[in-house]
């Protein structure tokens, strides 16, 4: 019988352990795949669709200045024409250059006008209805309320006479504000659009906003090849972001309070406009904003098939026309559409 020396015995032990680890990893990989888990996969985008965002160290990403043509989403459809001006503003069309009052609009893809041309957005339609004002649309696809706050903090000091700030609310903004792990995963999967890093907020014991630097979904080597690596990534992010979703409304409320303070600093009225939300979410913010004396305008119309861009799903030009009719930018306009919900808003604009 051959006797192993100490060195050979150690080498043999190492080999056996390595083989054992390999067997366990292979077994775990097969188990994950059998149970429906898969390696990381980036979403495949239309190769002809332009990248209209670029990284930003504070905001996470921003609209990239330029003129873009987006191919039709359905056969026989029309191309989409998108114009972003300096500082990420979406073009809103001609206005009276002697205009002094400025209207600032912030929000996500609904406000930006994703999947529709410049002239179909509600910001463009507001500008054409009120040429005596300058309408600036800073809406950006994928943004939450917190990123909209950061945009206001950056852009309002650059403007000459901001008179009104409009925030377009979409119910999913709540999740984005706290950097929910699932939202971080979705952003990373669409990273070819520069959706990677996400700034987010939390609240302290007094309900005040606590700011956090942009964070990204972790990306480990070989995650596109191994279901095990992708599973570890997902597990890590779930642990890192655990519990954030529980505070999404408290965080959103704290952000809205911060936004409203621009009224005092710049003498610019602030209005929250609900563009899309379920009944529970709408009722919650109506009650909160009334208590906080923050004006609210409910422009929440059903997002039916007739109101969507064919083949894509975002609100179409018809929906944006309804929003433009609903959103008040002047006292006269507000009087014509006055409801109990925006009574406070009338008093502020008077």
Spatial arrangement of strands, main beta sheet: 6-5-7-10-11
Number of strands: 11
- What number is the mean pLDDT? 87
From the N-terminal CA to the C-terminal CA, the straight-line distance is 101 Å
**Shape field:** elongated
State which percent range the strand residues make up: 15-25%
Main pleated-sheet profile: 5 strands, parallel
- How many separate helices? 13
Class of secondary structure makeup: alpha/beta
Regions with little confidence, pLDDT below 50 for 5+ residues: 336-350
Instruction: Provide the succession of SSEs.
Output: HEEEEEHHEHEHHEEHHHEHEHHH
Task: Kindly state the percentage of residues in helix.
Answer: 25-40%
The Rg value, from CA coordinates, equals 25 Å
Describe this protein's structure.
By secondary structure, this protein is α/β, with parallel strands linked by helices. Helix content is 38%, strand content 17%. It contains 13 helices and eleven strands. It has helices at 6-34, 109-112, 122-129, 145-155, 173-177, 181-189, 227-240, 248-260, 262-266, 279-291, 317-326, 331-336, 343-349; strands at 53-56, 60-63, 66-70, 80-84, 102-107, 134-137, 162-170, 198-203, 209-215, 269-276, 296-298. The strands form four sheets. It has a five-stranded parallel sheet with strand order 6-5-7-10-11, sandwiched between helices. The chain has a two-stranded antiparallel sheet with strand order 1-2. A two-stranded antiparallel sheet has the order 3-4. Helix 4 runs parallel beside helix 8. The longest helix has 29 residues, at 6-34. The chain is elongated. The protein starts with 5 loop residues before the first helix and ends with a helix. The model is unreliable at 336-350 (pLDDT under 50).
């Amino acid at each position: 019988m051959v006797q192993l020396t100490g060195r050979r015995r150690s080498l043999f032990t190492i080999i056996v352990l390595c083989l054992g680890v390999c067997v366990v990893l292979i077994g775990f990989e097969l188990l994950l795949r059998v149970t429906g888990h898969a390696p990381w996969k980036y979403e495949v985008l239309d190769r002809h669709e332009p990248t209209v965002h670029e990284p930003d160290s504070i905001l996470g990403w921003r609209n990239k200045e330029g003129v873009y043509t987006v191919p039709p989403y359905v056969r026989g459809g029309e191309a989409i024409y998108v114009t972003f001006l300096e500082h990420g503003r979406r073009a809103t069309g001609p206005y009276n250059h002697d205009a002094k009052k400025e209207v600032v609009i912030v929000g996500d893809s609904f406000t930006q006008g994703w999947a529709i041309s410049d002239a179909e957005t509600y910001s463009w339609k507001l500008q054409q209805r009120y040429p005596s004002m300058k309408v600036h649309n800073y809406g950006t696809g994928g943004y939450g309320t917190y990123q909209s706050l950061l945009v206001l903090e950056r852009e309002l000091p650059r403007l000459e006479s901001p008179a009104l700030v409009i925030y377009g609310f979409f119910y999913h903004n709540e999740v984005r504000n706290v950097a929910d792990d699932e939202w971080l995963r979705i952003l990373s999967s669409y990273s070819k659009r520069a959706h990677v890093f996400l700034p987010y907020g939390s609240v302290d014991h007094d309900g005040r906003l606590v700011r956090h630097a942009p964070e990204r979904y972790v990306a480990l080597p070989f995650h596109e090849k191994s279901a095990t690596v992708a599973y570890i990534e997902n597990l890590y992010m779930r642990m890192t972001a655990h519990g954030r979703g529980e505070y999404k409304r408290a965080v959103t409320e704290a952000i809205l309070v911060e936004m409203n303070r621009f009224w005092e600093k710049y003498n610019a009225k602030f209005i929250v406009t609900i563009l899309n939300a379920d009944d529970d979410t709408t009722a919650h913010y109506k009650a909160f904003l009334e208590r906080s004396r923050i004006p609210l305008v409910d422009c929440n119309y059903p997002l039916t098939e007739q109101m969507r861009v064919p083949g894509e799903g975002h609100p179409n030009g018809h929906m944006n026309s309804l929003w433009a009719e609903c959103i008040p930018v002047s006292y006269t306009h507000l009087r014509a559409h006055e409801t109990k919900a925006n009574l406070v808003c009338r008093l502020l604009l008077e």
